[in-house]
Structure formats: structure tokens, C-alpha cells
Amino acid sequence: MLAGVIIGAGIGTATLIKTYSNRDKIEELQARYSVTPQNIRILEDNINNTNTVVMEVVEKFNATILKLEDHEDDYEELKYKSVAQANDISGVISRLQIGKLVLLETTRQWRRGKLLLPLLEYMNITLPCNQLCSGAHQGGTVRI
């Protein structure tokens, strides 16, 4: 009987130790799982914040794309106009250079008492000349 009591006390002690050990493990698991809902809320908040930031980035990207398209249109317009303007400017400059040569030659001829007909053409002036101009075509001169 004493052996039964000793065995019973040993089993009781072992059970008591195991109970305390299990209680600590259960409390640890409860603490771990009680934090999990809080962690889930934190993760959900982080996901919501990330979604907000991603949406802002998408909106800014779309706005940038629209601006890029506007700039491309402006560039195409500028490219088209710059070619036309360069052509116009070169035409004006060449016309002025021709005019300079005509004016220089007109000055020389004027000192000799003659009027250079290309000056009148350059200035787009038409005069009725009747018999005066009969032999003075094609860049000729007229006696003044």
C-alpha cells in the first residue's frame, strides 16, 4: 500500500508538473494568438496605405503621360513651323541679298546717268515706257 501511495504521489507530482508546464505553453500560445488580430489590423492598415500610395502614383503617372502627349504635339507643331519659318527667313534673306546687289549696280549706273531696269523689277514698279524701253529689256538700262 505504501508503494501504491508513493506511486500515486509520484504520478500526482508528475501530473502537477506537466499541468504547470502545459499551462505556461497555453498562456504563451494565447499571448501569441491574442496579438495576431492586432497584427492583422496593422497589416490591413499598411495594405490600405500602400493602395493609397499606388493610386496616387498611378494618377501622377497618367497626368505625366498626358503632359508628354501635349509636349509631343507641341514639338510636332514647332518642328513643322520651324521648317516653314526657316524657309521663309532664307527666302527673305536671299531676296535682301539680291536687293543689295541690285542697289549697288543701280548706284553705279545712276552715276553714269542710267537707270537700271532690274531695280524697278525688284521694287515691283511698272512704268509705261513706250519707245523708251524697246531695246532695254532683260536687265538693261535706260538713259535718264
Which strands sit side by side, in order, in the main sheet? 1-2
Quantity of strands, as a count: 2
Quaternary status of these chains?
A: single chain
Quickly count the helices: 2
Q: What's the overall geometry?
A: rod-shaped
- Taking pLDDT < 50 over at least 5 consecutive residues as the criterion, the unreliable ranges are none
What is the structure about, briefly put?
With 144 residues, the protein is mainly alpha-helical.
Structural summary, described in words:
By secondary structure, the chain is mainly alpha-helical. It has one domain (21-143). Helices cover 81% and strands 4% of the residues. The chain is built from 2 helices and 2 strands. It has helices spanning 2-111, 117-122; strands spanning 114-116, 141-143. A two-stranded antiparallel ribbon has the order 1-2. The longest helix has 110 residues, at 2-111.
List keywords for this structure.
single chain, 144 residues, mainly alpha, 2 strands, 81% helix, 4% strand, rod-shaped
